[in-house]
Amino acid sequence: MVPDSDGHILSGLASSSGVASAGTAAGLRVALRKRGVVSALVLAAALAAAWAWISGGYPLPDAGVNAAPTVRLYSDSREIATFLGTSRRSQIWLPLAEIPGPVVDAVLAAEDRRFFQHLGIDLLAVLRAATSNVRHGRIRQGGSTITQQLARTLFLSTERTWGRKLRESGIALMIELRNPKERILEAYLNAIYLGHDGDVAVHGLGAAARHFLGKDLAHVRLDEAALLAAAISAPGRTFSGDRVRALTARDGVLRAMFRQGVIGRTAFHDAVVRPLPRPAVSSTLRAPYFVNLAREEIARRVALPHSGEARIATTLDPILQRVAEAAIRDGIDRLERRHPGLGRGKLQAALVAIEPASGRIRALIGGRRYLDSPFNRATRAARQPGSLFKPIVYLAAFEAERMGRWPGLTPASLVPDEPMTVKDESGNWSPHNMDRRFRGPVTVRRALEESLNAPAVRVAGNVGLNRVVQVARSLGIESLLAPVPSLALGTSEVTLLEMAGAFATLANQGVRATPTTLAGDFPPGGASLVAPVPAPVRVASAESAFLVTHLLRGVMQQGTGRASTRWGLSDITAGKTGSTDGLRDAWFVGYTPDLVVGVWLGMDDGSPIGLTGAQAALPVWAAVMRAAVRRTPPRPFTPPPGVVLVAVNRDTGQPAPILCRQGQVIQEAFLAGTEPHGGCGEASAAKIATGFLFFEWFLGLFR
Questions:
Q1: 621, 528 in Cβ contact below 8 A?
Q2: 515 backbone dihedrals φ, ψ, rounded to 5°
Q3: Burial grade of 672 (CB within 10 A; 0-12, 13-18, 19 or more)
C-alpha cells in the first residue's frame, strides 16, 4: 500500500466488491483508532510517571520496614489467630525465595504472564482493554499489570475513573524504573488484598493460605495455588461465595498454566480433578469474639516488637469453646422452634466462662454468628441483669453484719415479703413479684431461692444503696449503677463479663481476679514484654462470700434453678437466674469452685422475648457446665473457718435439734457467733419428754 498525492490509502487492497472495499476501510479505521488510543495512553502514562517522580517517592514495603509485627495467638499448642500488630489486618510477609514456585507461576498466569517483559504497562493488555472501554464509553476492563495493581493497592483508591487509571500507570512506570522485577513481585505477593475473614482484612498470599486454606503457604498443592491466584481478581466470590464459580475460576488458572507450558498434562489433570478444599476453620473464625478481646488486651499489656513475629499464649480452652458454641447454636434453635413468635434469626446470645482463682477466660461468645455481627455482646452490650443482681445485695448485707454496721441479718433471718411503696426519682414505686403474689415473712434463703423482689428492696434500703453500689464496684462491675431502690432488682445496665466476674469473686471466696485472655506462660519465641495482670485482691470476706454461695446452692436445688437437677448439676453447683421486667433479657450465671459460666439471651433492640432466665439461659449453661465437670470433676464447696453450719427449719429459720425436727430441715451457714440458739418449743418439749419416758421404760425391761 502506498499513499496517493492526497495522502489517502490507494485502493490496491480493494476487491471488485464495493462491500469488501468498505469493510477493509472500516477495519483500517479501527486499527488506526486503536493505535491512537495506545499512543495517547502511553503519552499520558509517561506524563503521569514524570509527575509521580516529582511529587513523591512511593517506596515499596518489605518485611524489614513493616509497621507492625505478625502476631500469632495460641491456645495450648494450637494456633488460633494471626494478624498484623493489634489491627484488624492479617499479613504474613514472606521473601520471594520462600514462596513456592507453583504459587508464583499461578499468579503470573492469572494476572500478568508478560510481567518480566514489560516496563510496568502491558501495551497489548492495554490495547485490548482500551478497545472495550472506548466501545462502552466507560472503564469495563482494567488491563492492569502486577505493577499497576501494586500501585493501586499501596497508593490509590479503587475508584474506576480515567484519572485514577492514569495516575496508576504513572506510578507503575516509576516503580519499574526504581526497583528490580523480583522486588516488585515480592511486594505484590505479600500486599495484594485477598478478602476479609470476618472483620479482618487479609493481605498477601501467606495470610490467605493461613486464613482460607488452614495451612502455611509452603504446603499448598498446585490446585490450591491456582485457587489463591484466582482469588486475586474476585476474593469475596472465591472464598465465601459460590463454590461452582470458585471451581471455574481455579480451573481457568490451571488451563492458563497448561497453555503457557508452566505445568504438564499430568499435573494439570491431577489438579483439575481435585475438589475444592473444604472451607478452613480460619484463624479469625476460631473463637472470633475471644480473639478480638485478646487483641484489645494485647494493645494494653504487650510491648510488641517493631517487626518480625510475636507468639502469644491465650487462656482459651478450645474444647470448652466448641462446646459453648454448640450449646449456643442448639439453644437458640430449640427456642426458635418452640416459640415461633421469636422469629428466625433475631434472638441473640452471649456466653462467658472464667476460672475464678486466676481470672482466665476459658470460653467466650459474643453473638449467634460472628460473620453476621462482630459486635461482642459479652463485653459491650449493657443490659439489665434483673434478679441476677440480688446476690450482690445480700453480700452487701452480710458484709455489713460482719462489720457491725447493720446487725441482725443472717441467711435464716425473716424478711417481710409484703406490699411496700418507696420513693424514687419518678415518684412512688411499689415492687411486686413475677406472679403478683406475696408470701409474708420469709427467710433470706427463701427470698433468694425464689427470687422475691420486696425482700431484696428492703434489704438494700437497710444496708444503704450507696453501700450496695460500692460492693458491686469492688466485685468488678464498672458500668454506671444508679443508687435508686430498683437497683436491688437489677435495673442498672451491666455486661455479661462484669456479672460473670462478680460471681467468680463469690466462687473464689471473696478474692477478685481480673478477667484476662492472655496466659501467664508463653510458647518458645513468644512475646516476653507483657505487663502483669493485676494481682488477685480480696474485696469481700471469705465468710460473707460463702454465705451467698451457700444460698445460691439452694437456688439450684429447690429454687429458680432447680431444673439443673435434670442434668445432674444441682448438688455440685451454685447459681442464679436473671429475668427482667417485661422478660426482655434472660440470664443465668452458675459456678463450681473451679469454673464460672454466664449466659445471656435477648434481642438487640430490647424487645421482649417472653422467657425467663430458667427457660432460656439455664439449658445453655447446663450444656456447657455438664461438659466441663465431666472433663474435670469440681472441688466441693468448703466453708472457711469463720463459718458454722447449723440445722434449721427452712421455712422459719429456727434451730432444729435432732430430737424435735419438723418440716424441712437444712444445714444453714452462719457467721460464727450469729448462729441461732434455742430449744424446741413447748409442744416439741412435750414430745421429747414423752419419748424420754418411753425410752426409760424400754431400758427397764432389761434391768
A1: no
A2: -60, 140
A3: exposed
| Locus of grid cell 443465668 | 588
- Gap between the Cα atoms of 469 and 464, Å rounded: 9
Determine phi and psi for 583, rounding to 5 degrees. 55, 50
User: What is the SS3 assignment for 581?
Assistant: coil
Q: What are 379-391's pLDDT values in tens digits?
A: 999 999 999 999 9
Cell numbers given for 527: 512475646
Interval 614-649: pLDDT, tens: 999 999 999 999 999 999 999 999 999 999 999 999
Interatomic CA distance for residues 409 and 445, integer angstroms: 11
Q: Which residues pair with 602 in a beta bridge?
A: 348, 585
Beta bridge partners of 655: 648
- Going by C-alpha positions, the residue among 515, 522, 527 that lies closest to residue 297 is 515
Q: Which H, E and C letters describe 45-69, residue by residue?
A: HHHHHHHHHHHCCCCCCCHHHCCCC
Q: All 3 cell numbers of residue 517?
A: 485472655
Is residue 414 within 8 A of residue 443, CB to CB? The reply is yes
Return the top range by mean pLDDT from 58-67, 303-312, 600-609. Answer: 600-609
Strand partners, 666: 648
What pLDDT score does 521 carry?
58
Across 513-642, the runs of DSSP E, i.e. the strands, are: 537-538, 574-579, 585-591, 596-602
Q: Give the pLDDT of residue 605.
A: 95
**How far apart are alpha carbons 604 and 346 in whole angstroms?**
8
Q: Is residue 232 within 8 Å of 110, Cβ to Cβ?
A: yes
The amino acid that residue 623 corresponds to is A
C-alpha cell at 395: 453480700
Torsion on CA atoms 687, 693, 694, 700, rounded to nearest 10: 170
Q: Which long-range contacts (CB under 8 A, 24 or more apart) does 433-439 make?
A: 434/579, 434/612
Cell of 369: 454468628
Active-site amino acid positions = 111, 387
Assign 179 to helix, strand or coil: coil
Q: Which residues, 6 or more positions from 457, have their beta carbon under 8 angstroms from its beta carbon?
A: 420, 422, 431, 485, 486, 488, 489
The stretch 520-531 carries a mean pLDDT of 60
